[in-house]
């Protein structure tokens, strides 16, 4: 008798389990992506530096600023192009982030302490021209014959 009752309980349990799965409603979740128009500002300005390591440090400093979408520093032109959300940051915050990493910008001098800690190849001339057009500077030889 115990085996019969046990068998009936097992069959009922299996029946309830299968019925429970059948009555379960399939819920479909749909996600609606809303496109928010983010007002991005594009900015270009001069930044002193020398090499690929400078490029890495400068871009890392800028990309660490909240709201910055993209930053690209041109080694030859000594110029950075930045795209950022002007509701989250300002141009001066970007200048200050670069200066904190040890590099001079058009508006802010780099931190002397950070500059001292830069690798030797990154120690730039503080009088170096910035925001160049990219054309190679040729020495003016008009004052003497060659």
Give structural notes.
- With 146 residues, the chain is of the alpha+beta class.
- It contains 4 helices and 3 strands, in the order αβαββαα.
- The protein has helices at residues 2-23, 52-63, 91-100, 112-116; strands at residues 40-46, 68-74, 79-85.
- It has a 3-stranded antiparallel β-sheet, with helices on one face.
- A hairpin with a 4-residue loop joins β2 (68-74) and β3 (79-85).
- The N and C termini lie far apart (119 Å).
- 20% of the residues are buried.
- Residues 135-146 have low confidence and may be disordered.
Compile the SSE list and pairings.
Blueprint: H1 2-23, E1 40-46, H2 52-63, E2 68-74, E3 79-85, H3 91-100, H4 112-116
Antiparallel strand pairs: 1-3, 2-3
- Nearest-integer average pLDDT: 81
Strand content: 5-15%
Q: Over all CA atoms, what is the radius of gyration?
A: 32 Å
- Succession of helices and strands: HEHEEHH
Largest sheet: 3 strands, antiparallel
> So what's the overall shape?
rod-shaped
Number of strands: 3
Main sheet: which strands, in order across? 1-3-2
Unreliable runs: 135-146
What is the straight-line distance between the termini?
119 Å
Helix content: 25-40%
Secondary structure category = alpha+beta
> How many helical elements?
4
Outline of this structure?
This protein has 146 residues and is α+β, with helices and mostly antiparallel strands. The chain contains four helices and three strands.
Question: Can you tag this structure with a few keywords?
Answer:
146 residues; alpha+beta; 3-stranded antiparallel beta sheet; 14% strand; rod-shaped; disordered C terminus
């Amino acid at each position: 008798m115990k085996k019969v009752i046990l068998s009936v309980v097992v069959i009922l349990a299996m029946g309830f389990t299968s019925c429970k799965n059948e009555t379960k409603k399939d819920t479909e979740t749909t996600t609606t992506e809303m496109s928010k128009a983010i007002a991005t500002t594009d900015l270009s300005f001069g930044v002193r530096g020398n090499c690929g390591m400078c490029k890495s440090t400068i871009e890392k400093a800028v990309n660490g600023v909240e709201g910055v979408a993209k930053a690209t520093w041109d080694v030859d032109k000594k110029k950075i192009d930045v795209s950022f959300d002007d509701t989250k940051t300002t141009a001066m915050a970007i200048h200050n982030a670069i200066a904190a990493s040890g590099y001079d910008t058009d508006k802010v001098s780099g931190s002397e302490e950070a500059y001292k800690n830069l690798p030797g190849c990154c120690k730039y001339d503080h009088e170096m021209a910035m925001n160049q057009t990219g054309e190679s500077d040729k020495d003016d030889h008009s004052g003497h014959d060659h």
